[in-house]
Specification:
By secondary structure, this protein is of the alpha/beta class. The protein has helices at 33-46, 63-77, 79-88, 103-111, 131-137, 149-162, 194-206, 220-224, 234-240, 242-253, 272-290; strands spanning 4-8, 20-24, 52-56, 95-97, 117-121, 140-145, 180-188, 211-217.
Amino acid sequence: MTIYQFYSSSIQALPNERARSNCLCHPEGGAGKSTISVHVASALCYVYGYKVAIVDCDYPQNTVNVYRTRDKQLLASDPAFQKRLLKQDIKPYPIVISSVEKAVDSIDKLEQQGFDFILVDTPGTVNIVGLPELLRMVQYIFLPMEADLGTIASTMGYMQILNGFLKSAQPDPDESNLLGFYAFWNRYVKSEKKSTYDKAAKLLREKNLPLLNSKVELMISYKEKRSTMFSLPERELDKLGLGRLIMEMLTLVLGAGEVTPSGKVIEMPANTEDAAVADLSDAADASDDIL
């Protein structure tokens, strides 16, 4: 899969520090990276108030730019779309088309413009010129993963390769900015056997490969409501698991307790699945007491 980068600079919580960067990547294409990139970028911009840009390196399809082109067509033909954009009163974030080889330069130029987050979307292959330099530039990498044996295996293999890019693994720490990388479940299906997810999580732990708690669910709105000019409402973001994913990313990058430009405190929401299990356990204990 490709790279999705969260690249932050001039963040209010860290005004005197070097720009923060995050990257979402995978060695295979078709893992939903572009869709997640758009949902996350739109939420960061239109819900949380950050200044966002996307660098689209996903040649030749340039998927993110395709989404923007569709939105522009709607803007030109749909009065309701126009009215909604005027009411939102937030300028749509820019999308820059670039090659992977030139992505670092594109990011540098955008950083000069004071963007908080720059997301980079790259092709679904690791054998591409400029990718190692891009991986060394970012500070955090996030890898979407599905409950498929092939996808899980390729994700784990890629994460083991990323170990060599870590700042802590370099003879000279200045050679890399990479502080950490994390997998997370994408297109999560509740009806899937829980043992599949549990076994994969156990295997990752045994290999010391970190897995986020966030699970992005596969629902109709996941694809049908993606937009480069509007975000899903917070309620839908939370329902899909995207709200939790964004908060978990922000917690890692900025720290819990920091405040977004929109005034929202960065904190991890309760794990609803864990809470449900706990409720069932409590109910069973109460039943035992009664008996």
